[in-house]
Specification:
This protein has 290 residues and is α/β, with parallel strands linked by helices. The chain has helices at residues 48-59, 72-82, 112-126, 183-194, 217-228, 245-250, 262-267, 279-289, and strands at residues 30-33, 63-67, 87-90, 95-98, 103-107, 130-135, 142-144, 158-159, 171-177, 199-204, 207-211, 235-239, 253-256, 270-271. The strands form two sheets. Strands 5-4-3-2-1-12-13-14 form an eight-stranded mixed sheet. The chain has a six-stranded mixed sheet with strand order 8-7-6-9-11-10, with helices on one face. Helix 1 (48-59) packs parallel to helix 8 and helix 3 (112-126) crosses helix 4.
Length: 290
């Protein structure tokens, strides 16, 4: 990625107002932040310093928008706790959600027939997979099959044993795990054998996802930005995982956290401090005082 850097030395805002023209003290109209590993610390909180920096950016004319791989049901409680009432892009770009109104504005679902064919192709190549899926809608459940390792935390899941249950309702995505392959290796195989049927992304440790073909965070962010009157050239984006690569490709400037996956660091315009060390605030404060 070869975006020009801005002229600078080398808990989240409560709302995301519609952006106005940026003041000379801040060069962007839109600040897009991933949640896990980026805006949120490991305890799912946002530091006071990062909150203050985002508040200052919005006061300077920018809008803050959350762009996360989590579907709305796994995102809503965090946004509510933060007092965030603007737009959020959820489900790897599948959903544009109005946090203040608790309303789903757009939603894209996975073609279940194509997803079934894709899974069969992957399993024919590397053997059985452990499966989970995110059902569509404001209250869509995350269903988890035998052997799928769920990360500890407060997020609710519903177990299933009959694979037919996987396909019984509209889905945003299917999660896959393999007992022997790393996440990167699993994602690579899935792309090789099924990349013409579904999108494949790695969103975190143990989180390889099958998505509607062509869907990415950039898809949802572009839709949300249009609603806010912002363009790619107006946007700075922060992230930490390979699922943020399309968002970095769309935005004018991409900032990877110090804890980011190496694939994302390779395409980033800048690497900042980690999510635990206020990496977002470090960049925003610099831009605000440039």
């Amino acid at each position: 990625m070869s975006h020009p850097a801005p002229a600078t030395p080398s808990s989240s805002t409560p709302s995301s107002p519609t952006p106005s023209s940026p003041t000379p003290s801040f060069p962007y109209k839109l600040v897009a932040t991933d949640l896990d590993g980026t805006l949120l610390r490991s305890d799912d909180t946002v530091s006071a310093r990062t909150r203050d920096a985002l508040t200052a950016a919005t006061a300077a004319g920018a809008a803050h928008i959350v762009v996360t791989g989590r579907a709305v049901p796994w995102t809503r409680h965090i946004l509510d706790d933060l007092g965030y009432d603007g737009l959020a892009v959820c489900g790897q770009g599948a959903q544009v959600y109005h946090a203040g109104e608790h309303r789903l504005l757009t939603s894209v679902t996975l073609d279940r027939q194509l997803a079934g064919i894709a899974l069969a192709k992957i399993e024919a190549e590397i053997g059985p997979l452990a499966l989970a899926a995110s059902r569509d809608g404001l209250d869509g459940e995350v269903i988890v099959g035998p052997g799928y390792l769920v990360q500890e935390g407060p997020l609710p899941v519903v177990p299933f044993t009959d694979v037919a249950d996987l396909w019984s309702a509209p889905l945003n995505k299917v999660y896959v795990q393999h007992p022997g392959l790393s996440d990167d290796a699993l994602a690579a195989v899935a792309r090789e054998v099924a990349g013409g049927l579904v999108g494949v992304t790695m969103a975190g440790e143990g989180v390889v996802e099958l998505l509607p073909l062509g869907l990415s965070k950039a898809t949802g962010l572009s839709l949300a930005a249009r609603r806010l009157g912002a363009k790619a050239a107006d946007t700075i984006a922060f992230g930490d995982m390979p699922n943020d690569i399309p968002m970095f490709g769309w935005a004018a400037y991409g900032v990877a956290m110090a804890n980011a996956h190496e694939e994302l660091k390779t395409v980033a315009d800048e690497v900042t401090a980690s999510n635990e060390d206020d990496g977002i605030a470090t960049v925003l404060e610099r831009l605000l005082t440039a």
